[in-house]
Write a structure and sequence with these properties.
Layout (H helix, E strand, L loop, with lengths): L17 H5 L16 H6 L6 H23 L5 H6 L6 H12 L7 H38 L6 H9 L1 H34 L3 H50 L5 H7 L9 H19 L2 H9 L3 H32 L8 H6 L5 H38 L7 H22 L4 H20 L7 H18 L22 H5 L1 H20 L2
Helix pairs in contact: 3-9, 3-15, 5-9, 5-12, 5-13, 5-15, 6-11, 6-13, 7-8, 8-9, 8-15, 8-16, 8-17, 9-15, 9-16, 10-13, 11-17, 11-20, 15-16, 17-18, 17-20, 18-20
Length: 521
């Protein structure tokens, strides 16, 4: 995650495995340690805030959200409020919750970094991949609400469609993806605050997790949606202020003219990596978000279909410009100073004068983004355990699955704390989760409108997974099982050898569609 992102000229990109290396910075780009690991690095580092100031702010903001969530939840008890907010959420609350849940701390790093090597194509793919599930859910949401009005999850619906065997595989994949997402979000905010103030990673991770768990495990979805409303207002206001400051301080440099002058490849229609990066982001991010249980809970939480439809459309038009603007900032930052680390482009423009006030605002923004996402993930995983636990484990009829789900969440949170406190890079696991979602997505959602038997569904998914794994890059992104192990890399064109991740996602997504097409011809 260092200067291998640099492209010194428009003509040298063919000699770089740009998509594979770019993905070392993650499709949602969660940073590793931004301030260095060694004691010497820490001594040489000049921070923007003192640790005490940063710590007070982190505790205060986290406690405020926890207090508000618990206070609000006291008026809404019961399992229906915990799982689906009693199916009575209005337009404003639904919209702000959908957007806040979608926009985690990753937006401060991911689009910014991706833009420096994938250009405007990557930014467009990123923005549409993040937002397009909202459009898909207009149709899928209507279908699932009509056919299964008392449900609360996609996995539960799949159990009714396919039976217990395939449903368990979908359940496992969904929980794995959301758990990795949870680890990444907590790590991201811990690393961000470490970068600004030098605060130890474990301290931030512990505070954020304890505060979020305290109100989410108590109030469930109702608490999550209520705090999302407040968090989205905070996020919206702070993003507007901070982006306005970047725009005004950058002057004429905050434009496509500067990018065209310094790095014309980033906005060129002839820049092939822009297309491959854009498609990769769109496929992977859209596929994973369609399996996000938090989205499906909100589909059921809407008080009626018209509210759901309006909320999803509005959310789409809020998410797209936010993600695109962050990517644009990445291109501007890279064009102004190519030596800046790609994932720090937003902060390099904002904190160039080391302003304490701006540092405080960034911490508040980072916390609001993270906590809004983490509470959604916590409640989503818990709800899956409550709803699908009985069919999965077949325990005693008197078993309290809600109570067990909370213990399960606590165990996962301890693991997430361990990952975040060490600043572990979980990129490869995240990419594996993306591959799984890509292999499942066509078969699962094809079954919404066409009858697919469990055997055919299994075959299409497994074929997609196996084919995707054959192309899926090794951790160093230099080769895959098919390209470089089974067959020498020399047998393949440079495009194939340099686009392993893109091709693995593409194959895993669309090969099941071909299988289904042949089967039902």
């Amino acid at each position: 995650m260092k200067n291998y992102f640099k492209l010194t000229s428009y003509n040298n990109y063919k000699n770089i495995s740009i998509l594979n290396k770019g993905c070392l910075n993650r499709l949602r780009s969660y940073p590793k340690n931004l301030s260095g690991n060694s004691e010497r690095d820490k001594m040489d580092k000049t921070y923007f805030l003192t640790q005490s100031t940063s710590l007070i702010l982190v505790i205060a903001i986290s406690l405020i959200f926890a207090f508000l969530g618990i206070l609000h939840s006291k008026k809404f008890t019961g399992i229906n409020n915990y799982l689906t907010a009693n199916r009575n959420i209005g337009l404003f609350s639904l919209t702000t919750s959908l957007v806040a849940s979608a926009l985690g701390a990753w937006i401060l790093f991911g689009p910014v970094a991706a833009a420096t090597w994938g250009g405007v194509g990557a930014v467009i793919g990123y923005a549409l991949g993040t937002a397009f599930p909202m459009i898909f859910l207009i149709y899928f949401g209507k279908k699932i609400r009509n056919e299964f009005p008392k449900g609360s999850s996609l996995v539960e619906f799949m159990r009714k469609k396919f039976g217990k065997s395939l449903f368990k595989l979908i359940l496992l994949m969904t929980i794995f993806y959301m758990f990795i997402f949870l680890c990444a979000e907590v790590t991201a905010v811990a690393v961000l605050i470490n970068y600004i103030s030098g605060t130890e990673l474990w301290i931030t991770a512990l505070i954020v997790l304890v505060a979020t768990l305290s109100y989410t495990l108590y109030g469930g979805l109702r608490a999550s949606i209520f705090t999302d409303n407040i968090q989205m207002i905070v996020i919206g206001v702070l993003l507007f202020i901070l982006i306005s400051i970047i725009s005004s301080s950058s002057g004429d440099n905050f434009s496509f003219s500067l990018i065209n002058e310094k790095n014309p490849q980033l906005i060129s229609s002839n820049y092939i990596p822009g297309y491959t990066a854009g498609l990769t982001f769109f496929i992977a991010v859209a596929a994973t978000n369609l399996f996000h249980q938090g989205n499906w809970q909100r589909v059921y939480a809407a008080k009626d279909y018209q509210t759901l439809k309006s909320g999803l459309i509005i959310s789409f038009f809020i998410i797209v410009p936010i993600v695109f603007l962050m990517g644009f900032i990445g291109m501007v930052s890279f064009s102004m100073d190519p030596s800046v680390r790609p994932d720090l482009g937003f902060f390099s423009l904002l904190l160039k004068d080391q302003t304490e006030i701006l540092s405080l605002l960034i911490i508040i923004l980072g916390l609001a983004l993270t906590i809004s996402t983490v509470d959604t993930l916590v409640n989503a995983i818990s709800s899956l355990f409550v709803v699908d636990g009985k069919a999965t484990f077949n325990l005693d009829k008197k078993t309290d699955y809600l109570k067990i789900s909370k213990y399960f969440i606590l165990i996962l949170s301890v693991i997430a704390f361990g990952v975040a406190s060490k600043g572990f890079d979980i990129l490869y696991l995240f990419l594996l989760a993306d591959l799984f979602c890509c292999a499942f997505v066509v078969t699962v959602f094809y079954s919404f409108y066409n009858k697919v038997d469990e055997k055919t569904a299994y075959v299409s998914i497994i074929i997609g997974l196996v084919a995707g794994f054959l192309m899926f890059p090794f951790p160093d992104f230099s080769k895959s099982l098919l390209v470089g192990v089974i067959f020498p890399k020399d047998l393949f064109s440079p495009f194939i050898a340099q686009s392993l991740l893109f091709l693995s996602f593409l194959i895993a997504t669309f090969l099941p569609a071909i299988i289904l097409k042949i089967k039902f011809r």
